[in-house]
Amino acid sequence: MDPTGSVHRRERGFATLLIVVYGILALAATGRAAFELATKFTEAPLPYTLSVLSAATYLLVTILLVRRGGRSRAALWVCAIELAGILVVGTLSALVPGIFPVTTVWSHFGSGYGFVPLVLPIVAIVYLLVHRRAEVREASAAGTTVAP
Questions:
Q1: How many domains does the chain have?
Q2: Is residue 44 part of a domain?
């Protein structure tokens, strides 16, 4: 069996897993945000707005990974913004407990979701960067260039 074929299959498998996990989080966060907006928005507008933002982020990354895979620079940027958001919200919810009267997907670094919201963007960023380096290496070996 061709080792490169095996690597490409493994890479596609990991990308598929990443897409599935992002898709599940997108569905969970969207359902939660829709319920909160429809029933309780006036109780805590900031946390519920953050739930909508997290849902939109997960949905956008899912779409970008499906359409562009590891070649998506936009997915890399959205994941970086997602990671910054969870770090800010997680830190604020830990240091200033009263700032969010109710929890959000990103409260306490995603503890309500098994810390998946914290780990997922890190894994996605590493995947996207490794894929990008491999693409640049392959292009260099072939004598072509890759757009920055």
A1: 1
A2: yes
Residue 31: C-alpha distances to residues 21, 25, 34, 101 (Å): 15, 10, 5, 20
Where in the sequence is the domain holding 80, given as residue range(s)?
3-142
Contact criterion met (CB below 8 Å) for 102 and 47: yes
Q: Which of 25, 83, 86 is nearest to 56 (CA)?
A: 25
pLDDT digits (tens, 9 = 90+) for 24-62: 999 999 999 999 989 998 888 888 899 899 999 999 999
- Asked whether residue 147 is domain-assigned, the answer is no
| Cβ pair 103, 27 in contact under 8 A | no
d(CA 48, CA 100): 10
Confirm whether 148 is domain-assigned: no
